[in-house]
Write a structure and sequence with these properties.
Helix content: 25-40%
Number of helices: 8
Strand content: 5-15%
Mean pLDDT: 88
Low-confidence stretches: 15-23
């Protein structure tokens, strides 16, 4: 009887531990679903940058060229509305409305707004956190080392596949011959020889000129970008799991 009771107790503790882990993960999941406020602010951001009337309900069914024009309009508008590359303080909301209110934002703040506006207009996106490997010599060490060089940007699904969209410059992953480029493509040894399309206005972040690693769905390792602002990392679990098992 004692052994049976012990096994039941251990099993109960195991179940409670799993349930507690799931609860913590759910509370700290960063949702990517745009709210009505995101939609309204997104429209205002575009209009403020001179893109009045650019929103189209059928944009996800438009031609590739129309998609690129819209994606670049969103990128340009978000950067224009936050001209200073300064982080929104920790433990504060950092949605599109907050980017507008502060008038500034860093890579993660801007990419969040880019993703929300694109999501609200029929596009699929994924958020990517990038870390320098050149500084540590190890991908694992880079993910675990505070202060290591980092960056954040978005990838958007177009008619020609996923494409990287910068958050601190007006660069998109579009080659001279019209191919879309992802972060995985930028990791290839041949990436330095890529020629960019005439529509690409700027260069990408310097972190991509060195060895780097990235994590889909990760918004912060410290947990202070999104409520409840605890030391648990800010993560969108569906994107993270999809990236790990792709």
């Amino acid at each position: 009887m004692k052994r049976t009771s012990t096994r039941r107790f251990v099993s109960l503790i195991g179940c409670l531990t799993v349930l507690a882990g799931i609860a913590v993960a759910a509370v700290h999941n960063v949702t990517t679903v745009p709210t009505q406020n995101d939609r309204e602010v997104g429209r205002m951001i575009l209009e403020r940058a001179g893109y009045r009337g650019v929103l189209k309900s059928d944009v996800d069914h438009a031609s590739f060229d129309a998609q690129i024009r819209f994606i670049q309009a969103v990128q340009d508008a978000v950067i224009s509305v936050s001209p200073e590359t300064v982080l929104i303080p920790f433990d504060r909301s950092r949605e599109p409305k907050d980017l507008v209110a502060h008038g500034h934002g860093e890579c993660g703040d801007r990419s969040r707004a880019i993703e929300k506006i694109l999501n609200a207009n029929g596009f699929r996106t994924r958020h990517l956190a990038i870390y320098s490997v050149s500084e540590t010599g190890s991908r694992v060490a880079s993910l675990l080392t505070p202060g290591v060089g980092s960056h954040a940007l978005s990838e958007v699904l177009t008619a020609r596949g996923w494409m990287a969209v910068e958050s601190t410059s007006r660069w998109i992953g579009l080659t001279k011959d019209g191919r879309t480029i992802t972060l995985e493509d930028l990791q290839a040894p041949s990436a330095a020889q890529l020629a960019w399309h005439d529509r690409v206005r700027d260069t990408h972040h310097r972190i991509f000129t060195q060895e780097f690693t990235y994590v889909p769905g990760l918004y912060s390792r410290h947990g202070r970008f999104y409520a409840p602002y605890t030391p648990v990392p800010d993560v969108n679990w569906p994107d993270l799991l999809a990236g790990l098992f792709a």
